[in-house]
Amino acid sequence: MTRDLRARLDAFLDAPITGVLGAPEDPAAHVLALFHEVAAEVPAYRRWLAANEVEPAEVRTLADFQRLPMLTRDNYLRSYPLAERCRGGSLAGLEIVAMSSGSTGEPTPWPRALVDELEIAARFEQVFFDNFEADRRTTLAVVCFPLGTWIGGMYTASCCRHLALKGYRVVTVTPGNQKPEIYRVLATLAGQFEQVVLLGYPPFLKDVIDGGAAAGIDWHSLRLGLVLAGEVVSEDWKALMVARAGLRRPLFDIASLYGTADAGVLAVETPLAAAIRGFLGSDPAHARALLGEARLPTLAQYDPRSRYFEAHEGTLLFSGDNGVPLVRYHISDQGGIVGYEDMLAFCRERGFDAIAAVRGQGERGVHALPFVYVFGRSHFAVSFYGANVFPEMVAIGLEQPEVSALVTGKFVMEVVADGDLGRALRLTVELADGVTAPADLGERVAAAVLGALRRLSSEFAAYAPAERQRPQVVLLPTRDPTYFPVGVKHRYSR
Is-contact 251 358, C-beta < 8 A? Predict the structure, then answer.
């Protein structure tokens, strides 16, 4: 598991993706090797193991590994200096830093090196090889994620360029999340390529497609693909994009990435995963039998040699190599894992041949990799245009003097459909006991919260279109039984 740049670069450039994505051999050995490497080379992790009375030499089997305490933001990231969480206790050799906002808006830095990008570039290679056959077709990759210190835009652009270095027929352009610039790029360049792939957050890409006609873009004349990240989308949303953008192979033309600022792309919605998700969505009983509830998560496949997933009490943790290596890191996403053969057997038992469904639309996209499903962090935050909106941010808005005397401070935040499958951030706010809301209170609450969100979260200010940032506010009386029942632990998000 050397981080030698020349060896890693040669391995990336020389290895065909079909070989990389073969059935993984002994991922347990791989994750154990990662553990011992991190324990030996990362000062913070050595100190953390000692504080938890763990002797690294005694961790010899997968069962030993699975008994290791979990890393969290609080017990590890916020407890040790950044340099100590890197190899050798130094940022030496790390070339770029991405920033993510935590629950209070305090930025968390995530440094990485080129070798870390190569690991994630392999995930993009999955998509551009399997879904878009970019080894054969000239491809314009339009990065519509926000550009700046955030993880999405710069990381995506780097990985797409690595694919071009490997020989893929991919040219990358980076208008970011500026719709006029996206339309200008498409009008100028799209005709020079056999296909166009837009990469961005789902609500924003929908806005781009919806506004395309007025900008003179004929989506149906393009061979278009979409690469999504940051949010769970419904099958109805996918169907709408298929119709509006003229997508020809739904299982291949839309791909979701499961990613995080902490470690880049963790898993990919392959065509096989997309077919299975569509089947689960066809009858709530299927999803409930497999996942325990009827709502659909993001369903993706992962390479356990790259990111090793575990399930813990309905949430996910992973281990992976990065600029800041993470071992049994509890990311707090709700979800679970399903083995490849177990997933296919589940489908067959219910009369669905997932592989045949994929083969009905294309020759690629089937790999014997395990599945991970992700509902998101609904206990803590909602994802809005790819930005995490945390309860603490909204609470600060409700504490402003212009509204604080009229509300209790309790609220529920949701991302809801806003006509034609758009997205809006809705806040249901509890009025103080005995208060009759003034006619303008909803607007005052919306303005106060919007100010707090823009101030505390650079991601929110950059990711969400300005015209959609102001939350919808619903005011309810104290102890409303639906949103604010008495005697029940309050949940701030749905």
Answer: yes
User: In 3D, which of 334, 341, 330 has the Cα closest to residue 371?
Assistant: 341
Residue ranges of alpha helices (H) inside 127-201 are: 151-166, 179-189
Structure tokens at 467: 């015209």
CA 220/CA 406 separation, integer angstroms: 51
Residue 19, SS3 per DSSP: helix
The pair phi, psi for residue 409, each rounded to 5°, is: 100, -10
pLDDT tens-digit readout, 41-63? 999 999 999 999 999 999 999 99
Distance between CA atoms of 92 and 96, rounded to whole angstroms?
11
Distance separating alpha carbons of residues 6 and 323, to the nearest angstrom: 17
The model's pLDDT over 251-281, given as tens digits with 9 standing for 90+, comes to 999 999 999 888 899 999 999 999 999 999 9
Q: Which amino acid is at 164?
A: A
Alpha helices per DSSP H over 283-402: 284-291, 340-349, 354-359, 391-398
Cβ(120)–Cβ(75) under 8 Å? no
The length of the chain is 494
**What is the enclosing helix (H) or strand (E) of 416?**
strand 407-417
**Side chain identity at 383, as an amino acid letter?**
S
- Helix/strand/coil for 312: strand
Q: What is the 3-state secondary structure (H, E, C) of 428-489?
A: EEEECCCCCCCCCHHHHHHHHHHHHHHHHCHHHHHHCCHHHCCCEEEEECCCCCCCCCCCCC
Whole-structure pTM value: 0.86
Please check whether residue 135 is in contact with residue 23, taking contact to mean a CB–CB distance below 8 angstroms. no
